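Researcher: Following up on the earlier apo prediction. This time include the ligand. It's pyridoxal-5'-phosphate, with the SMILES given after the sequence.
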Amino acid sequence: MNQNTLYAESANISELTESFKKFFLNDSSESALQYRKLTNQVAGYISEQISTQKQAYSGKSPQALTTQIADFEMFPKDGTPLETLLEHTRDLIINNNISVYHPNCLAHLHCPTFVASLTAEMIIAAFNQSMDSWDQAPAATMIEQAFCNELCRVYGFDNQADATFTGGGTMSNFMGLLLARDHFSQQHYNWNIQKKGLPPEASKFRILCAEFAHFTVAQSASILGLGENAVVKIKTNDFEEEVSALEDTIFKLRAEGLIPIAYVTTAGTTDFGKIGQIGNLAEMAHQHGLWFHVDAAFGGALIFSEKHKYKLAGIHQADSVTVDFHKLFYQPISCGAFIVKNKQSFEYIRLHADYLNPESNEAFGILDLVYKSIQTTRRFDALKPFLSLQHIGTEKFGEMIDYTIALATSISDLLEADPHFELATRTQINAVVFRYLPEGEHSVQVIDDVNNAIKTQLLLSGKAIIGQTSVNGKAYLKFTLLNPMTEKSSIIDLLEEIKRTGLKEMLNN
Ligand SMILES: *Cc1c(COP(=O)(O)O)cnc(C)c1O
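Model: Understood. Below is the ligand-bound prediction.
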């Protein structure tokens, strides 16, 4: 017998496995008790922190955090009791998180989360189902598929459409452009990229989008082997996409011997919350044989708003759509979806692994979702929006979206009327871009510097996390007003704080 066999059969082996048990969730009553006790302890820390945190951030500097982390030996030989460890975790992490629940957390599409989705996270983590194959996630597979089917219906697609969950907008945009590229090659050159790699014509492929499209369009082009230079950015009119500019660009590229393969429209630009005329853009793209992808990472949630869903009119004409649940759907990270109009398109990425999704499974009606994902092991994230929407209902959810848009509109009005501020443009969702204007005449540089300083001062003091961006090369500030619990008065207070900080900066320089 070899060493290993001896080890596994030694007399005190049950003592050994017993000693492992307390580290896992298992069928013993001690385990159940410990799990409840520890989750209670954590729940206590979390709710205490959220209810007592006065600021959006503790204000700890990067250096102070590094010092605090240095107290931990990263890979200790001996373990620490979890109760103690959780206390340390509270002091280091829980107390120094950005509070996504705080009204002054406004920089990004970074959302507070629904309680229903937090209970879903507990279930997802505890049962650890994996969505790649049915034998790792039977009920979860069926729920995800049912949710995806209805998601397609909600956006107006028929039953030729299908969807999959992704890690977020980045992955969904990547999948859209991956299918666009592979479809174009198959259609026009009878060339299977999955098998043969890029066709000779690929160096002429062009992906079109507006200048304010998300950077992941360029990132996707790069990963897809087309190169970032394959992305042609089209000028907008007051940040909005124009159909005529799309057509002009297609003609111009063709005249140069280049091959436009896809157009990406952004339903809700990250910075300005702008949505183009999706239906008209779709018709133009299709008229010229382009794949039409809608990046609705930001604006996708408007579909549940009776007041604002008209802004997504025509979205069902898309060949593919990005939806991001960890933004305006208030889900914990990560949670996104990718919809494709023709489910056959998933064939471009289908692979079979004998161990995972053997073709024989299909005969039994067993659904292994791995074939439509570029991930293998995958979380059961679908449970989060499923439980949330079951709990809240689409009507109440729609009211939340309506409220945030109304808030952003009313704050935009205030900014427009206040001589200390300049509004960049009117948003169609809830991102508001503006800048502080110090009194008197100042150079562009001085105004840029004071705006950048305001943003950093507020972050490092923990008072507010606000966004920054640039418009025509000038520094601007941004509020992403996606928190439906935020009242107008707290934003007014923050604007006053911004003025005070701006004034102080001007006096100091
Ligand atoms: C946030 C965002 C993305 C990227 O999505 P992630 O979920 O961060 O990967 C893509 N497009 C738009 C318009 C976005 O706002």
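Model: Residues 395-508 form a domain with the Aspartate Aminotransferase, domain 1 fold (CATH 3.90.1150.10).
Researcher: Noted. I'll compare it with the apo version next.
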